[in-house]
Amino acid sequence: MSAAAVPEQLQQASGPVRRLAEVLLVRPGPYARAFENLILGLIVLSVASIGVEAIPALPAWVTPALRVEEVIVVAVFSFEYLLRIVVAKGKFAFIFSFEGLVDLLSIAPAFLLGLDTRWLRALRLLRLLRLLKLQTHILETTVAQRTRELAQKNVLLEQAQAQIKAELEVARALQIAILPATFPLRTGCDSAARMLPATTMGGDFYDFIELPHGKVGLVMADVSGKGVPAAFFMAVARTSLRGVAAGHATPGACLAEANGVLCAQNPLDLFVTVFYCMLDPITGVLRYANGGHNPPYLRRADGSIEALSGAGGLVLGAMPDVEFPEHAVQLGIGDHLVLYTDGVTEAFNAAYEPYGEERLVAEIQAHGAGSAAGLVERICHSVTAFAGAAPQSDDITLIVLSWNYTVPALPQ
Amino acid sequence: MNVRLETLGLTTVVIPAGRLDFGSANGFEKQLELVFAGVGTAPAAVIIDCAALEYVSSAGLRVFLLAARTSQRASIYFALCALQPAVHEVFKLSGFNRIITVHADRATALAQAPQGRA
C-alpha cells in the first residue's frame, strides 16, 4: 500500500486502543477481514436466536444458552461500537449517522435494565443491511471485473469471427470461381448455367468437360452436408471427375472410376450425388448415368416433358465397387434439357412448403421454347419469388441445354 | 426433430419424428452412436422406424450411411422401416435402398431382426 492510499485517520498520532481499532476496522488485512466476518456471523446468529426464542415449548437448556449468547453478542457489538467511535473522524457524525444509530439500537436494549425492551432487539435485523451492503460491494466488484474480461474477450472473438468470415468468403468465392463460366462452343448448342449460393457454404457444382471427338460432358452434382467440409469434398469430387472423364467412352464407367477415387480419399464420410451425361453435338445422342441425383427433365420441342429417370446408381463416395447403369436418349431439334439440384425443388417458403417438382415442370413447360439463358432466368426468378424472405439453406443450381443442330449445307 | 427409443428384447427401435436435415443431422448422428454402443451390452439389432419422419436431406442420408457402416463393423442388424413416400423416394433416388435394408413396416422389420447375438 502506498502512503497516499492510507486513510487520513491513520495518520493521526494514537494510543493502543486506537491502534487496535485501526487494525480491526480500517487497515485492510487478515485481522480486519476476520473481525468483519466475526461481526457478520454474530449478526446472523443473533437474528436467528431472536427467531428461535419465539418458538413455543423449547427444551430447558435452550433458554440459558440463549442468555449466554446474548451476553457475548452484546459484549462484542458494544466493543465494536466503541471502536467505531474511536476511529471515526467526526464522532458525533458517526453516532447520529444511520449506521451508528442502528449499531447503538442493537445493543441498547441490554443496558435498559428493568424495561421489557426485548422487542427492540428486533432492530438487529437492520444490521443485516450490512450483509447486504457487503454483498452489493462484492457483487459490484465481481460484475465490474467480469464486464472488463468480457469486453476483452468480445474484442478477441469479434476479431476471430471477422477473420473466419473473411476466409469463408474467400473460400466461397474460389468455389464459385472454379465453376465454368460458359459451355464449350459447339454449333447448334445453346447452354446456360447458374448457381445461387446458399447463405451457408453449400456443396453444389456443375461442370462442362471437353471430351475426345468433340463430345461434351455435363456434370450436375450436390455434395452432402454444408460448410467447409462440403466445399473441400466438392473440390475433390470435381477434380476427380475431370481427371477421369476423358479416359472413358461411357458415362457409367466414368462414374464408377470417380467413385473409386472418392471412396479412397473420404475421411469425413461425405458423398456426392452426380448426374453425368455425354453429348454428341453432331448426332444429338445423349448418354447418361446417374449417381443418386435428381433426374433431369427433357422438354421436347412439342412441349411434352419427360424425366430422365432410368434406373440410377448409388451416390458417389459411399461405397466402392458399385456399378452405374447407363442410358441414352436421342435429342431432337429444339429440345431443352434441364439439370438441377434439390436446392431448386427443396427451396422452402416461410410456411415450410417446398417449391416442388410440379412448379418446376410448369415453369419448364411455360418458358421452354426460348433461349437456354431465358429459361434459367425464369426458373431462378420463380424459385426465389416462391421462397420469399425465407432463408436459402441450400445452393440452387441449374443447367439448361438446348440442341438445335442442323447439318451445314455443303459448299456449292 | 424428436427421437424416441423403444427396447424390445435385444432390439432397439429408434423413432425419429420431424425433419432430418442439416440442422438436426449432427444430433441424430450422436444419438445413434449411443444406441449402437448400448447400455452395458450392445443391441443385437437396431431398427429405425421412420413412420413420423417427414423429410430427409442429404445430410440426413449421411447419418444413415454412417449408421450402416457402424452396424457392419459391430455385426449389429440394421434396418429402416415404414418410410413415408417422400422419404422413400429420396432413398430410391440416392440408391441408398441398395445398401440399407428397408422394410415396409415395423412388424416385418422385427420379424427379420435376430433374437440373439450372431
Tell me about this structure.
The complex is a heterodimer of chains A (412) and B (118). Residues 1-11 of chain A have low confidence and may be disordered. The N and C termini of chain A lie far apart (109 Å). In chain A, helix 2 packs across helix 6. Chain A is of the alpha+beta class. The radius of gyration of chain A is 42 Å and the shape is rod-shaped. In chain A, a hairpin with a 4-residue loop joins strand 4 and strand 5. In chain A, 30% of the residues are buried. In chain A, 48% of the residues lie in helices and 16% in strands. In chain A, the strands form two sheets. Chain A has a five-stranded antiparallel sheet with strand order 1-10-9-6-7. A five-stranded antiparallel sheet of chain A has the order 2-3-4-5-8. Chain A folds into two domains: 3-145, Voltage-gated potassium channels. Chain C (Four Helix Bundle (Hemerythrin (Met), subunit A)); 180-403, PPM-type phosphatase domain (Phosphatase 2c, domain 1, 4-Layer Sandwich). Chain A contains eleven helices and ten strands. Chain B has 118 residues and is of the alpha/beta class. Chain B has a single domain, classed as STAS domain (Transcription Regulator spoIIAA, 2-Layer Sandwich). Chain B is built from four helices and six strands. Chain B has helices at 22-37, 58-73, 85-94, 106-112, and strands at residues 2-8, 11-20, 45-49, 53-56, 77-81, 101-103. In chain B, strands 1, 2, 3, 4, 5 and 6 form a six-stranded mixed sheet that branches. The longest helix of chain B has 16 residues, at 22-37. Chain B is globular and about 35 Å long. The mean pLDDT of chain B is 91. At the A-B interface, loops of A face helix 2 of B.
